[in-house]
Amino acid sequence: MLQSIAQKGKLSLGLVFPIEGYQGSVPEMKEQEHLAKLAEEIGFKALWFRDVPFHDPTFGDAGQMYDPWIYMTHMMHETKSIALATGSLILPLRHPVHTAKSLFSLQNLSGGRVILGVASGDRPIEFPAFGKKLEDKASLFRQSFDYLKRLNADFPQIESNAFGQTNGQIDILPKPTHQTQFLITGHSGQSLEWIAEHGDGWLYYPRNFNFLKWNMEDWHAALEKASQPWKPFLQSLYIDLIPDKTAHPTGIHLGFKSGAEYLNMHLHQLQEFGVNHVILNLKFSSQPIAWVLEELGKSVLPKFL
């Protein structure tokens, strides 16, 4: 499924839930089913689901609020074939057996539409609620990732200080009928060489073009050092698209407000640098979201098909 949204030399677009503009940290979550269907119809390649266990008002964003597995299943039935991706599942705060059970189930039921973005977590206040230490999150991430991968095997023998052991006499069902690709978010406490070797792609945050250039050089060097083939680079981007197509950009948090002409130029520049998929976040949209999607479908998406 990853190949359907991220190909070498090309750029595609996805949307993160909630697909709405809102003030504060808690969205209204209205008409999300209709907007997801519209997004698929006009050419978006993926719908992204965040994992936010607790609402921390000081963080400024509660995400789509629903449990990602439940909401992905709901949206699976509202759409046809668009990729369903987590952006990103917090591995240290979830037991890998429960993660695998949900992942394998949804992967089979959806016909292989799931892409798994994973992360170590960026909200320190959540860790004590799970009895976890923030300083352990890098190790917890790595142990969970390894445990999760091993559960693909029949009757695996697994030993983890953090998550327990299996003795080869028990198994997890169902086994996945489709391979899952794992995208590592940020650094998740790992070296870039580890990410290049173990992940199927790298999911990062919006940065200026100079930083992106250095990032891409480091990514390609890490792949070469780990003796790995090309793997995709994906990133998020906040936008506020306005009717004046020629409007120059003004900065917003992790993105910009602009007309379609600058957005196209910016996305083409990302493509030139080697970005393969951009996850658009519409939280700061000042225009009706249905209009934003229609305008993106008319003025932007056709240039990246």
Task: Put the structure in a nutshell.
This protein has 305 residues and is α/β, with parallel strands linked by helices. It is built from 9 helices and 12 strands. Helices cover 34% and strands 20% of the residues.
Give your account of this protein's structure.
The chain has 305 residues and is of the alpha/beta class. It has one domain (2-304): Alpha-Beta Barrel (TIM Barrel). 34% of the residues lie in helices and 20% in strands. The protein has nine helices and twelve strands. The chain has helices at 2-5, 32-42, 68-78, 96-109, 137-150, 192-198, 209-225, 260-273, 289-299, and strands spanning 12-16, 46-49, 83-90, 114-119, 157-160, 164-167, 182-185, 201-204, 233-241, 250-252, 255-258, 277-281. Strands 1-2-3-4-7-8-9-12 form an eight-stranded parallel beta barrel, surrounded by five helices. It has a two-stranded antiparallel sheet with strand order 5-6. Helix 6 (192-198) packs across helix 7 (209-225). The radius of gyration is 19 Å and the shape is globular.
